[in-house]
Amino acid sequence: MPLLDVRDLSVVFQRKGAKPFTAVDGVNFTVEPGQTVGLVGESGCGKSVTSLAIMGLLPRRGNKVSGEVRFEDTDLLKLRPQELRDRRGRDIGMIFQDPLSSLNPVLPLGLQVAEVLERHQGRTRQAALREARNLLDAVGIPDPTRRLKEFPHQLSGGMRQRALIAIALACKPRLLIADEPTTALDVTIQAQILTLLKQLVEESGTALVMITHDLGVVAGLCDTVNVLYAGKVVERAERHDLFAEPRHPYTHGLLQSVPRLDVDRGGRLHQIRGSVSDNIPWPEGCAFAPRCDRVNDACIGETVPLEPTFRGGALRCTNPVPQEVPA
Amino acid sequence: MVRVILRRLIQLVVTLIALTTLVFFWLRSLPGGPVDALLGERATPQTRELLTRALGYDQPIWTQYGRFVKNVVTGNFGNSIRTGEPVMDVISRSFPATIELAVAAIIIAIGLGIPLGYIAARYRGRMLDNATIIVTLIGISIPIFFLGYLLKDLLTQNIHIFPPSGRITTGMDNTDVTGFFVLDGLLTREFDATADALWHLVLPAITLATIPLAIIIRITRASVLDVLDEDYIRTADAKGLRNTTIRKRHVLRNALLPVVTTIGLQTGALLAGAVLTEKVYNWGGLGTLITDSISGGRDYPVLQALILLAAVVFIVVNLLVDLSYAVIDPRVRVQ
User: Fold this and answer.
1) CB neighbours of residue B264 within 10 Å
2) What's the half-sphere exposure (Cβ side, CA atoms, 13 Å) at A185?
3) What is the model's pLDDT at position A83?
4) Can you give the pLDDT at residue A325?
5) Where is the ABC transporter domain (chain A) (predicted)?
6) Residue in chain A lying closest to B254 (CA)
7) ∠ at Cα A212 (A211, A214), nearest 5°?
């Protein structure tokens, strides 16, 4: 049984006087215990909203969430807010994009780590702080005893993200959701943080949902990858298959857009034309059609279904990039 | 921290020097003067000249200024022109009354303002919140003297709930220790005097508190809404913390920063409001003293001292505000 089973998850934002906007449109994916799953896509494709919906962290008003988020036996969307609070931080941890703004500026780091232990493990402040020290040590923060008393502004960006990881993993959750955890960091620090995440996840057997726009992150970390476009999964594949033979023209375009060292200097970088806002509504065809190089008549008219591929993945395309015929 | 305080004290001295000069020349540039005020329109030129010379106003203005500065530096503010008493005596008699009133007003404004602003923010966009916005708008807009007379008419004339004026019932046998009547009653265990003084304090304090209260409610509301949108509140939610923990530990403390600044800035408004409030309720404090000193004799020495005192109070309160910042926000401590 999968640890997390997201079925037909939709999030519609409704504002008074504005057209409802479907940010997440019937997303399906599963995460097995200990597995690392990537959610990949451009800004605005719905990947962050998906993660917030799983955690129940979307604003209470102005949106409508439907579908199912099964965590083990429970549908998280059906839980009362109080029951969900009991699980957040204990069963599911989350790491956010901007480590500076995600830490409370007026509270010492120690308390910010300790409070989650006090809450879910019923520890005293003193015991929680002792454990917090060990956690900071485990995520590679030097001199953790001193850091307990320091404030977020006294730490470097990489330290802050390490601290957030320590908070998210404090109660040994079975699932960790990381929403663009390296985007706000320097490239050198990015690699360190990813290595740390990989190591911690492997040691503890925690499953990881990695949300990113960075295919490099996916390549280094994920077992399975879901590519999102305009609120829907357009392709799902094992990491190796995805990089070796992307089938969806969007995935193909994303991979082509990664700068390469082995092509001539001065050659133009590949780009996918238009932007994610230049799409057509899914009910009227493939949302990516206006930007697609392989568009044909079958792309317009009705929703293109997500169909399983023989390699165990799934694909939502009428005219996929051809596979190389095995010799 | 010590350096911050030192720097601010130096600023205080510079401000006071500039203000002393401004006040001195500003007062003397006003039409009329003590001589006209004391002698009236029908005085003969001879008596006018005599009094002018007796008060030292026949000297060149720079000489007068020099003497004034010399006296102020030595702590001598001169004697009141109206009564002849030393200025410091006149002021110290009225000072406790105003402080008592201002402290009561600020306690009401902070004590009600922060909770009400917080509640409005929690019920953002609902009836209660909208009502708060309208009521605070009225609170900010209403002139103090109008509200003062309105409350006075309503609650002391139509319905006799509160005493109409004064700080304590005439004939009340109270012992004067500090000049703060509420405090004195507690110190001497004359609790009936404390109760009576508090009873007199209610309407003036409400009148004076209205504007700061409305402003603090609004600032608190806006500030809490800002903080609720912060990423670290989402982190706190992601930790599964209880709502009460999030509110107390994460929201309130961050939301208080702008509120504290506002409280400091409201000191000035409070001092100005005290003048009007004291007039309405015949409250014998600095406000009454300042109006009497202007209208009844252009009492230069008293006025100069009063304005300097107001400036010192304002600056000191804002220094305290800055220091409390360092307590709330660790980011300020480092600098």
Assistant:
1) 18
2) 22
3) 92
4) 60
5) 6-255
6) A106
7) 155
In chain A, where does the domain assigned CATH 3.40.50.300 lie?
4-222
* DSSP per-residue string spanning A77-99: GGS-HHHHHHHBTTTEEEE-S-T
Determine whether the interchain pair A106/B239 forms a contact, defined as Cβ–Cβ distance below 8 Å.
Answer: no
Domains of chain B: 2-73 (no CATH), 88-334 (1.10.3720.10)
Q: What is the pLDDT of residues B189-232, one digit of tens each?
A: 778 888 888 888 999 999 999 999 999 999 999 999 999 999 99
Q: To which residue do tokens 């001195």 refer?
A: B24
Q: Give A104-149 pLDDT, tens digit per residue.
A: 999 999 999 999 999 999 999 999 999 999 999 999 899 999 999 9
pTM for the model: 0.82
Nearest to B231 among A90, A102, A108 (CB): A102
Which residues fall within 8 angstroms of residue B15, CB to CB, at 6 or more apart?
B311, B315
Please tell me the predicted confidence (pLDDT) of residue B4. 74
Helices of type H across chain B:
2-29, 34-39, 45-55, 61-73, 87-122, 127-141, 144-152, 181-187, 191-228, 231-238, 243-245, 253-281, 286-295, 300-328, 330-334
Phi/psi region, residue A103 (left: phi>0; alpha: psi -120 to 50; beta: rest), is beta
Q: How confident is the model at residue B251 (pLDDT cuts 50, 70, 90)?
A: very high
Dist. CA A42–CA A30, nearest whole Å: 21
Digit-coded pLDDT (tens) for A240-273: 888 888 899 999 888 888 777 776 667 777 788 8
For domain A4-222, give the CATH superfamily.
P-loop containing nucleotide triphosphate hydrolases (3.40.50.300)
Contacts of A89 in chain B (CB under 8 A): 238-241
Q: Within chain B, how many helices (H) and strands (E) appear?
A: 15, 0
